Protein: Cna B domain protein
Organism: Solibacter usitatus
Amino acid sequence: MVKLLSILLLAAGFLAAQTLEGVVTDVVSSAGIPGVRVALSQGDKTPYVAVTDSEGRFRFSELREGDYSVRYSATRYFSPSVPGDTLQVRIRAGGLPVRIERRMIPLSRIAGRVIDGSGDPVAKARVELTTGSAFWQAETDAKGNFDMPSVIPAALPYTLSVAPPLAGKPPAPDPDTHEPRAWVRSFYPNAGFEEQAIPIALHAGEDLPGLELKLLAAPVHAVRGVLLNPNGDPVAKVAVALWEPGPRRNAFVQAVSNPDGVFELPSVPDGEWRLSAESDRALAEQWITIKGRDLSALKLRLTPPFTVSGKVIVETREGMPVPVPPRVTLIKQHNGKILLQGQSIVEADGATDGGFRFELYPGSYRVIPGPPPPGFYVESVRAGETPVLEELELSAGSPGLTIVYKSNGGTVRGAVEKCGTGQVWLIPQQGPPPRNYFAACNTEGRFEFTAVRPGDYYAVAVPGYELWPGGVNAAILQRAARLTVRPNETTGLDLTLSALR
């Protein structure tokens, strides 16, 4: 009897077990990708792991009924802009095998060398590739060569630049004026200012070797001033640094303030700079512009941190459980470029009542609401009663922040003829807050967006290799359908696949 019971229990277990199988493909070639690590997990349990075969296929068998998360990772590939790198699947006992597909974009490569005005290679130069808030860095070797083998391709043009080595011999004085010069950041191929640079377009899987950047020498000037504490008294023996705009990890130049608080930064070329100092939980920041002459008599004042409070409101329907309030992130920026120095990124978890607090220094910040709970969308972000669109200036006395999530979003579903590995973009015609939605077509060419913020949208279907260009451009407007999403309603939509270039 015991033996019979064991056999019956074993048979029941096999009946409850299920199979999950799938394929991972390259969005450009549509070929299967071998060697992709696929992790299948439930909560905090140890995940099941499979590796794709030579055709990009994988299989999990004898799975128990329940909800699973699927994650993908591969060398020289990344996931396109569909909702996160995690796919949720539901396994049901006794059903047919579950089949899923994932498309990944091949990374790009950019390589070349850096030379000086005489054509000699420059070692230990810092090469940077930037677009928006994304950036890559590399240092040149003894022969001036650099290599960035894993760059995410982007529809936005990249800017390639090179900064001089942190230590090195300065260039010769100007041959005409005999004034001193310094090596300065130079932009591809040999421009002294970013607006003069030739942008670089990187398509998925593209290899751009052999690029050459020329490090330039430019006239320099001095920056002089005095460092003061919050009471207006001079501050001695504190480092004062000068930074270029953007995500720079190293100061261009720095000096220590004298006993009387006076500082001098020599050899500063023309351009916009951020002057900063930090001491005893106080920060001083000031943006300055150098134009052909020295800058003197600056007063750089240290300021203590201040507190900004706020609240996350998650509105629910009657009888619906209230989700945990999402985390809030602030990113320090200047003219749309992230700043990496000091306290550049701060995060706060909401309390059970949704309240949160940040301790900050004055500056411009971008407010990033946490991902909405399932079934919700971000309805608004406000500072006091003012909608927050882009950067927000925060200082002592700034109004509190309020982030509202709602659950009455609409649904958009439809089909794309011959979608294949394509994707659909759903783009608000106007903010706030600017939130785009991305979805991949399934094997039948269908797509669906849920919990969409009510409003007017553009919708466009594009090949899987297309990357979000950072904003609505003429190519999108020419191809986009226009629709209105209403609360708690479903909107049907059929689209035609069309490349943007």
Q: What stands out?
A: Residues 220-301 form a domain with the Immunoglobulin-like fold (CATH 2.60.40.10).
